[in-house]
Amino acid sequence: MPFEFRTMINYRDLNKNWKPRIDAIISYLNESAILHSEMIGFNASYMLKNNCAWILNKFSIQLNDFPKFRDEVRIITWSREIHIIKAYRDFEIYAGQNFIGRASSLWVFTDLKTKKPRRIPVEVKNMYGEEKISCGINPDDINYNTDDFKKSEIREYTIRFTDIDTNGHMNNTAFFNLLENALLEKLGDFIVKSIKICFKNEVTHDKKTLNLGIKHEGENIYKFLFYKSDLIYAYGEAQICI
């Protein structure tokens, strides 16, 4: 059954241009998914008792418009499909009554001790159910080519303890925050139209730093790569409007 979450764009969510930061919007999508999970019984106690968690693998968001300061944001989310070790979750995003965006995500059911994928128990599958309704975008529609980044702009960032979440790795919102930081530094102001991202490896605090490569592809498309040496943490592309 779809779950509805309501919140408000607060001052702490804004960037220097009075626009909501993309990591703030993603954090609200994450919160809607967490609250939905808690409602059906997949809460912190269940995860700790059964040494399991959902780890985000792929995510895609499209925004027709951006909410404004003090707008009420309404998010509707649901479990779309559940397979052997992975599950799809979709979202619709509203500012008041106006539909402004949609998102789709792919999550991997993971053993917290081994940090490896684990078969989804029937009990968990029954908790969530499957709506079999797509929001209209596919998180699997993302490709990576090493040639894309041979002439990219590169920035190095320090990994902070505050970037690390309860799973012991850098939270997905921290990636979006670093990406927006780099684009603001480069462009000054913009509006995000869409972002696709694939998370390949976890970033733990002992890595100390990571690199972000960005390459302009034309038509306001920017491809990006989070990496260190030969290890790729995440890659994707963002479409923006100046």
Features:
242 residues, alpha+beta, Thiol Ester Dehydrase, Chain A, 4 helices, globular
Protein described:
- This protein has 4 helices and 10 strands.
- It is globular.
- 34% of the residues are buried.
- Helix 1 (22-40) packs antiparallel against helix 4.
- The chain starts with a strand and ends with a strand.
- With 242 residues, it is an alpha+beta fold.
- It has helices at residues 22-40, 44-50, 122-128, 172-187; strands at residues 3-8, 52-63, 72-82, 86-95, 98-111, 153-158, 191-199, 209-218, 221-228, 231-241.
- It folds into 2 domains: 3-128, Roll (Thiol Ester Dehydrase, Chain A), CATH 3.10.129; 146-241, Hotdog Thioesterase (Thiol Ester Dehydrase, Chain A).
- It has a 10-stranded antiparallel sheet.
The low-confidence runs, each spanning 5 or more residues with pLDDT under 50, are none
Please name the CATH architecture of the largest domain.
Roll
Q: Alpha-carbon distance between the termini?
A: 38 Å
Secondary-structure element pattern, one letter each:
EHHEEEEHEHEEEE
For the sheet with most strands, the description reads: 10 strands, antiparallel
* CATH first level of the largest domain: Alpha Beta
Indicate the structural class: alpha+beta
| DSSP helical segment count | 4
Radius of gyration over alpha carbons? 18 Å
Mean pLDDT: 96
According to DSSP, the number of beta strands is: 10
CATH domain fold name of the largest domain? Thiol Ester Dehydrase, Chain A
State the share of residues found in helices, binned by percent. 10-25%
* Strand content range: 35-45%
CATH superfamily of the largest domain: Hotdog Thioesterase
Read across the widest sheet, the strand sequence of neighbours is 1-3-4-5-2-7-10-9-8-6
